[in-house]
Design goal:
alpha/beta; Rossmann fold; five-stranded parallel sheet; globular
């Protein structure tokens, strides 16, 4: 099982990777939406969860989410949006576009682990 983290912040990708490693889960990281799509082309079958930032350059998390949910190869992969509290309208839009859950930044690793378990618990 692998998690794909899509966030333009390398620090956030490292924090998520650290929390996932405690759970014995491997993470892959992408800093942009197009990079995430390339990783999915290569690793798609092994990805059990995508953690997706809302605000990113070039392609927003919402735009990438819509692409993912429109593609039958990736539409079944749960997507957890990672966002700040001030973006509630984006969270609502993401849930309507097919996101499984969301986690507000900043967060502590324990909250991330709990949210991952809630989102894909049966697959771990």
């Amino acid at each position: 099982m692998k998690i794909l983290t899509v966030d333009d912040s390398s620090t956030m990708r490292r924090i998520i990777a650290g929390a996932a490693s405690v759970m014995g889960i491997e993470t892959l990281g992408a800093s942009r939406g197009h990079e995430a799509l390339q990783i999915l082309e290569k690793e798609g079958g092994a990805i059990a969860l995508i953690l997706l930032d809302v605000n990113m350059p070039e392609m927003s998390g919402i735009e990438l989410l819509k692409i993912l949910k429109a593609d039958p190869r990736w539409s079944k992969i749960p997507v957890m949006m990672v966002t700040s509290e001030s973006e509630r309208t984006s969270v609502i839009e993401a849930i309507q576009a097919g996101a499984s859950s969301y986690l507000a930044k900043p967060f502590v690793p324990e909250d991330l682990i709990k949210k991952i378990m809630q989102t894909v618990g049966g697959q771990i």
